[in-house]
Design brief:
The structure is a single chain. The protein is an alpha+beta fold and about 80 residues long. The protein has 2 helices and 5 strands, in the order E-E-E-E-H-E-H.
């Protein structure tokens, strides 16, 4: 089972969340994958996926803020 190694980018509190919780977040996992906390928008975007994109029944489409991803950019490895 993979484990969270580190957060990528600024914490929700550093991005202006008053409570520092319930906000989008990105984490690097011990197996090299990434875990994303975001808003589940699968029902509203599933039909809009391009024809060459698909998702398994166990996969969800999630949205994070632009700021969350931009502030994580420097922490995302090149390889």
């Amino acid at each position: 089972m993979s484990q969270i190694i580190r957060r990528l980018g600024a914490s929700p509190r550093d991005r202006g969340s008053a409570g520092g919780a319930n906000c989008p977040d990105i984490f690097e996992l011990s197996d090299g994958r990434f875990a994303i906390i975001g808003t589940d928008v699968t029902d509203s975007l599933d039909e809009d996926l391009p024809q060459d994109a698909s998702r398994a029944d166990y996969e969800r489409i999630v949205v994070i803020t632009r700021e969350t991803l931009v502030r994580a950019k420097a922490d995302i490895p090149d390889v």
